[in-house]
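Suppose you are handed a protein chain with no further information: no name, no annotation, nothing but its sequence. What can you learn? This example shows the usual starting point.
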Amino acid sequence: MISSSNRKKVNPGIGDAVCHRIGNHCGSTAIRDILEFHGMPLTEAMCFGLGGGLGVTYMEAPFDGLPYIVHVRSMGFEPRVFENLDIPFHWQDFDCEEDAASVLRKQLQQGKPALLLTNIRHLPYYGTDTDFPGHAIVAWKYDENTETVYVTDTERADLISVPEANITAARFSKNPPFFHLGSMFSPYSLAPNRSMAVAIEMAINENTQRMLNDPQDGLASLERWEQEIDQWCEHENWQWTLRFAYQIIEKRGTGGGGFRKMYSEFLLEASEMLPQIQRMNLVELMKYSANLWTNFALTLKQESEKEKPNSQLLRSHIQGIIRYERKYLMSAQKAFL
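A reasonable first move is to predict its three-dimensional structure. Written in structure tokens, the prediction is:
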């Protein structure tokens, strides 16, 4: 559960307090870093599981050239990590960019890092004109001489210097479904008010019930995807739609297998405190689900490169995932009756 020490000292005087480790997913990596700074060293997988990160969200995309998008993690993941640990949490939002920049600057000058939601389009180190809001990073230091904010970001090992104007612009997004208005979380201290075993059980139960019953998550989203896969394959931008789905499942910060590989690592850690996880074979069930998602992603990639996609083949993959995710969810439900 406790992270292995991989902390780097970067630029003495700037990076001394940085608790960053390379991770898979932006949100779970950033939260892991913030928690360790405040004396709670956990693995990224544990943070992901505590937030009930497992999920499937299907939506019609608001982006040009991309008619549909499927996220293979749950929405609202970040607050749930703290809620399940019984740590007070709220996003601090702002009416204008000037106020957002001023408050962040003050926090960093007081030595308090901040969890931020950003749109990567405004982060120079990504070098992209594509909107991708909702991306979590941690801001650690502010250099008033250069008006620069030093941040850490997921798979990048070192501190990254970013002009304050870019950070400020990145913090505001009105692109659905990822609205954020300077959203930041920068506590002066953190301490859990709930035992880890209880928090983990709550997280698994909530995640299970949401994926079983929420009409906007889990099985319901998978079933809608199955019903509409023909529309994906008939759309004029079907190649990019399928290719992007492959990237979302396997490449863009999931750790592989649509986050299922990382969730299986969480379950393995959790089984040290909750033996029913092993008794109901939840770890192995989740590992198998991860393999199904990886195979599906590779098929999406292959079909995107053809002259015409095989919608029935894609549908059969989704049907297999539905059957196996339901099997896992029913087993997880029984584990905590």
